[in-house]
Amino acid sequence: MTEYHTVYKGPEGETTQWDDIQRKMGNLPPKAPVWKPEKYAPEAEAVRDAAWVEGRDVGELREAADAFDDDRFLEEYRQKRIHELQAAAARPRFGSCELIRGNEFVEKVTNAGPDVWVVLHLFKDGHSGCGLLQTCLDELAGKYPSTKFLRIVATDAIPNYPDANLPTLLVYNDTKCLQHAVGMNHYGGAKRITPEQVAMVLNSWGPLCLSADQDEERAQQAQIRALVARMVDKKAEGARDEEDESSDFDD
């Protein structure tokens, strides 16, 4: 006659007191860890916020139009970003070192605009140092057309300006004179002055001699910062208006 034995097993991972005693005595191997499924972690969706918009070019922003249909703030931001990039491509470009008169100083130097950097050479005809520096500035003006290079007869800008201070360079931005350099020593002297040396000195004072890519990036960053500030202020103002309306309703 066949004998049947019934074996009862508890939930997975559960042990009896006897088994625990045997394991302590070394008569049974260690209990196998209970398998548990890994915690579910959904893949994070790409967040298309203001920071995402800043890193896109015009083509990418146009292709992403559908992603912004449900967010008026970001859609407006996207449209403004496109306009700003297009405006950056059409911003003023100079390309030569223009001779100006004293009565043009305020218009063309002081009030050139907050986004325009001006390099002004105070010179005298026949002065050897002025001639060497002007040759370098003419080359740099053609190479870096986003910077406004100008020259003016020293005594036309400042009456009785001494020859001992020539050549003199002035750097203006946003109505302010930010730097001035007197003489040739800044550029290594008359024997060592080169366009590259002058460009290095100018770049130590500001973004004056940048490559086309560097200049484009600088202009875009400045425009983006201004745009973000305006958009953030606008959104914050809208939030305050909503809070005021909610307070009125509660009252």
From TrEMBL:
CDD domains: Phd_like_VIAF. Pfam families: Phosducin (PF02114). GO terms for biological process: protein folding. Residues 67-184 form the Phosducin domain. It comes from the Eukaryota. InterPro entries: Phosducin-like_chap/apop_reg, Phosducin_thioredoxin-like_dom, Thioredoxin-like_sf. GO terms for cellular component: cytoplasm. Belongs to the phosducin family. This is Phosducin domain-containing protein. It comes from Chlamydomonas incerta.
